[in-house]
Write a structure and sequence with these properties.
With 443 residues, the protein is mainly beta. It folds into two domains: 33-140, Immunoglobulin-like (Sandwich); 143-419. It has two helices and 40 strands. The protein has a 17-stranded parallel β-sheet that branches. It is elongated, with a radius of gyration of 29 Å.
């Protein structure tokens, strides 16, 4: 009796197994569903492996299907696939149950060339009929490795790209000059450490770009991807003009006796401060600082600080921001701080924190503050919406109805000719009066 039961069970198992084996349909030409139609690698550094992207292939045909093949259209060793768990650029006879899915992972490793280039390829899937495909695009940038100590005066030529895995240090006797259009991509936990001098010479059309190595769109606004720029006590006179500095811990830090100029810059998405200054002499103008986890500008100690026609806007929502946008705690006797023709606005009730005894004046600014600091304010507009065009999209151009329009002090333009034009090169003298902020409203 037991023998008959055992035979029956074995027969059922074998029959079920055979049924499953026979139930996959071959060469049906059935259409499979893909999670996307394009795998896009935004920017790939040549000679370096990219991040990994994937597609999900699902069988919604209502039948168990045998996939004849999955392969790369052009196997030139620049795209690497993992198909259903196997590291290979091609696979055949993949059985896919109805309603089930498999994954295909892709990674780019573009060859080093002489120019930047766009690579296109496809993943081809065949079930017996017409091929289905997922397009792959990868934009390759030729980069030069830039790491370690710079001991001699060095120029990074215009329109070149660099990759820094370990960071850059400028010796006290050296100067690093970065020309327009240069891009430097930094690995996590590194940046530029300066004991000598730094000169960034970007332009409106070709700003210098300093950012982390993750170039995918989903990382475009993620802070703390690299350390930022640090000026040490030994550093010499430095200037940063037309640079976009983004996604750092703190974008710029300067300590003890430097003379620093920051002009026509965009500083954004920083986990701590945008700019930290202590015991320095610093001029900042025509600059936008926004989306910082702490302050946009933090000043302490002694020094002379001039901040003209800047926009400091902070609607940080990644975590709780403790500090005000502008934080100043300077020495009463040995410091002088002027903030003129600027905008300070954010999502806190009070965006200015200052030592009441600090020698500081806000002149013709639009500011957000609930503190009684009238002795520090001269002709300022308090607690009105600046009416930016679209701050959610980092567009801080003023609307024509903005209360920051025409409130700036024309005298600063007469005194400092570099204020005659805004960040975008627009004249500040074409209408009734200059506007506060880094950019004129020209509508």
């Amino acid at each position: 009796m037991r023998k008959n039961i055992l035979i029956t069970i074995v027969t059922i198992i074998i029959s079920a197994f055979c049924f499953c084996q026979d139930n996959f349909e071959y060469n049906t030409g059935a259409k499979l569903d893909f999670s996307c139609d394009t795998l896009k690698f935004d920017t790939v550094f040549t000679g370096e492996k990219s991040s990994i992207h994937f597609i999900k292939i699902t069988n919604n045909s209502g039948k168990n299907i045998n996939i004849n093949s999955i392969r790369l259209e052009h196997d030139d060793n620049q795209i690497h696939l993992n198909i259903n768990g196997w590291q290979s650029n091609s696979a055949e006879n993949i059985e896919l149950l109805k309603g089930d899915s498999i994954f295909v992972f892709a990674q780019a490793e573009l060859k080093i060339g002489t120019t930047n280039h766009l690579l296109t390829n496809s993943i081809i899937v065949n079930t017996g009929g017409d091929n289905q495909k997922v397009i792959i695009t990868a934009y390759g940038i030729n980069v030069t490795k830039l790491n370690g100590l710079i001991t001699n005066d060095t120029i990074l030529p215009a329109n070149t790209a660099y990759l820094s895995h370990k960071g850059i240090k400028i010796d006290k006797n050296a100067k690093l000059i970065i020309k327009e259009g240069v891009a430097i991509y930094f690995n996590k936990n590194c940046g530029i450490d300066i004991s000598g001098s730094l000169q960034i010479e970007g332009s409106l059309e070709k700003p210098v770009k300093l950012q982390g190595i993750r170039t995918e769109q989903e990382y475009s606004e993620i802070p703390a991807q690299w350390n930022g720029i640090v000026f040490n006590a030994e550093s010499k006179t430095s200037a940063i003009n037309y640079a976009t500095i983004k996604n750092t811990q703190t974008a710029i830090s300067a300590t003890n006796n430097q003379t620093l100029t920051i002009s026509n810059c965009i500083i954004e998405n920083n986990f701590n401060n945008g700019i930290t200054l202590e015991n320095t002499n610093t001029l900042i103008y025509n600059t936008l600082i926004h989306n910082c986890g702490s302050s946009c500008i933090s000043i302490s100690g002694t020094g002379q600080y001039k901040i003209f026609n800047c926009t400091m806007a902070d609607y940080w929502n990644i975590s709780y921001r403790k500090n005000a946008i502008f934080d100043c705690n300077t020495d009463v006797q040995n410091s002088d701080v002027v903030v003129a023709n600027s905008i300070i606005d954010g999502n806190h009730d009070n965006e200015i924190e200052i030592n009441q005894k600090s020698n500081i004046i806000f002149d013709n600014c639009l500011i957000k503050s609930n503190l009684n600091q009238q002795n520090h304010y001269n002709n300022c507009t308090i607690n009105l919406d600046p009416e930016f065009e679209n701050p959610a999209s980092a567009n801080y151009i003023l609307m024509p109805s903005s209360p920051a329009k025409d409130i700036a002090n024309y005298g600063y333009i007469m005194l400092y000719d570099y204020l005659a034009t805004d960040y975008y090169g627009n004249s500040r003298t074409n209408d009734k009066n200059p506007d506060a902020g880094f950019a004129e409203c020209i509508k």
